[in-house]
Amino acid sequence: MQRKPIWIKVLIFGILLNSFTCKKTVDKRKVIECHYINESSKDITIKVFYKTETGYLDSIYTLPNGGNLYQKSEIPFGIVSDLIVGGDSVTVKFGNEKISKFTPITPSPYNILDFNNYQHTEKSEYKDTYKYTFTNDDYLHADDL
């Protein structure tokens, strides 16, 4: 008869121990914010190409002289495809005068597909802000149309 109370005590101890050691898993998604500021003295058109299973999609953004563009995305698995910086290639057109073309591996300090060219601020463990400012240097280093 003594075995039953010991067995119950061991069972209760195990349940209590398990309830203190189990942790609730919370799916935290990373939020990426990108800010683009145009200080180049020219109106800018950004055309981004994204590779898909069936071809390419493109998105066009306009950034007037003195204007800015804001993008925000929740990144579930490191995917940034709905942001400019997540494109497979990009063209940056300055008015009807000059153009720059980049892929993510194009070595240039003016490549907007390279996170290293952004001013980065970590807001929290789950939120990062990136800022790219177009200046006259971006315009001067672009190719003539």
Radius of gyration: 25 Å
Question: Major sheet: order of its strands?
Answer: 3-2-5-6-9
The helix tally amounts to 2
Class by SSE composition:
alpha+beta
Euclidean distance between termini CA atoms: 94 Å
Mean pLDDT across the residues is: 85
> What is the helix/strand order?
HEEEEEEEEHE
- The count of DSSP E runs of length 2 or more, i.e. the number of strands, is 9
Largest sheet: 5 strands, antiparallel
Walk me through the topology.
Blueprint: H1 3-21, E1 30-38, E2 44-52, E3 55-63, E4 68-75, E5 89-94, E6 98-102, E7 119-124, E8 127-134, H2 136-140, E9 143-144
Parallel strand pairs: 1-8
Antiparallel strand pairs: 1-4, 2-3, 2-5, 5-6, 6-9, 7-8
Describe the model.
With 145 residues, the chain is an alpha+beta fold. It has two helices and nine strands; from the N terminus they run H-E-E-E-E-E-E-E-E-H-E. It has one domain (30-144). The longest helix is centred in the first third of the chain and has 19 residues, at 3-21. The protein is globular, with a radius of gyration of 25 Å. 17% of the residues are buried.
Task: Write a compact overview of the structure shown.
The chain has 145 residues and is of the alpha+beta class. The protein has helices at residues 3-21, 136-140; strands at residues 30-38, 44-52, 55-63, 68-75, 89-94, 98-102, 119-124, 127-134, 143-144. The N and C termini lie far apart (94 Å).
